[in-house]
Every structure is written in C-alpha cells, then in structure tokens.
Amino acid sequence: MSKFGLACLLVCLPLALPVQAAVPSAVPAMPAPARSGSVAGIQNTWAALSPEQKRELRSRYAAWQALPEGERQRIRHAAAAVAALPVAEQQALRARYLDIDQMHRDGWLLGPQLGVLYPRLQPLFGYLPAAQREPVMALLRQLDAAQLEQLSLISQRTPPQQREELRTQLLALAPAQRDAWLREKVGR
C-alpha cells in the first residue's frame, strides 16, 4: 500500500493513533487527552467535545471495531510507519488526503483492503438498503484481492438501474459459486 493509502487510513481511523494526531483539519480541533491517562482527564476531554465531534469519534470507533483484526494490525503498522516520517511529509500526506472527495475519504473507514478500492466499488455498494449492509460487508471481506478487482470492474460497468438486481444475485450466491459468477460478469 502506498504512503498515501496509509495516511488515509490513519486519518480516518483515529484509534490507531492518539486522537489529536489522527483528526483531519476539516473536523474542528479536539482537545488532546490528558497525558496522565486518568479517568478524570479522559472524561474532561470528552466533555469538552462538541456533539458533532462526539458523533464523528463514535462513528470512527464503530468503523474501527468492525474491521477484522488483521486489518487493524495493518493500520497499527501504518501508524508506526507514518509516525516515523518527517513532520513535513506527514502534513503533505494529510493535505493530500483532505483534497480528495469526502465520499472517498469515508471509504477509507472500511480499512486498507476495501478503502483502496472504494472509489471503484462505490457505484455498486455506496448506497445500500439497511438490510443489505451487514451481508454486503461480510461478503466483501470474504473476497480475495483478485475477486475484489473483478467486482470493482463490474461495479463500474453496471448501469444504475441494474445495481440492486446485481447485488441481490451476488448475495444469493454460495461462496463456491462467486468466483465463476465474477469471471462470467467481467467477461461480458
């Protein structure tokens, strides 16, 4: 994964880093947690946040918790790699991240494997009915890199009026049938 991809993950998922270091400048500044790590210090920090900041952190925390442990470990390693970069390079990566569309920034909340493909998967999976969210996420996390690449091609080729039917077909497939189905759809 590129340095930029790593930076995107770190900005989106603040629990891989201290809160202050991971919050994009587009979000109002949040007070740094008390250094002592005391419960009172943490409570004071939380109390100082606006409702918008609290919602943002809750959302990011939920995204972090939803990631498989292997993805979280990749992000922890990325945090260490980015923290080792010179400050100017860290700031340049943050600025580059903030220049991308909010929809694509939000895609990085899905973790490194899906975040990098999100711009291409978004047409098919960006707007899901509530009942399909969990099954789709489970399915996407089961696919390997080649299958995700095929699915990203299908996503970009599928007209809007056919996306729901395509998702329904994909969700109905047994895992053993997915590879052949993906190859068939890409071959069209």
What distinguishing features does this structure have?
mainly alpha, 2 domains, 13 helices, 72% helix, globular, signal, DUF3106 domain-containing protein
Number of strands: 0
Gross morphology is globular
**CA-atom Rg in angstroms:** 19 Å
Residue windows where pLDDT falls under 50 for at least 5 positions: 15-35
Quaternary structure type: single chain
Describe the main β-sheet briefly. none
End-to-end separation in angstroms reads 30 Å
Q: Helix-strand pattern, N to C?
A: HHHHHHHHHHHHH
- Tally of alpha and pi helices: 13
- Please estimate the helix content: over 70%
Class by alpha and beta content: mainly alpha
| Count of folded domains | 2
What percent strand? under 5%
Mean pLDDT across residues: 82
InterPro entries: DUF3106
Keywords: Signal
Organism: Stenotrophomonas terrae
Signal peptide: 1-21
Folded structure, characterized:
It is a single chain. With 188 residues, the protein is mostly helical. The protein has two domains: 1-110, no CATH class; 117-188, no CATH class. The chain is built from 13 helices and no strands. It has helices at 3-12, 19-22, 39-47, 51-66, 69-83, 87-98, 102-107, 112-115, 118-125, 130-142, 145-157, 160-172, 175-187. It is globular. It starts with a helix and ends with a helix.
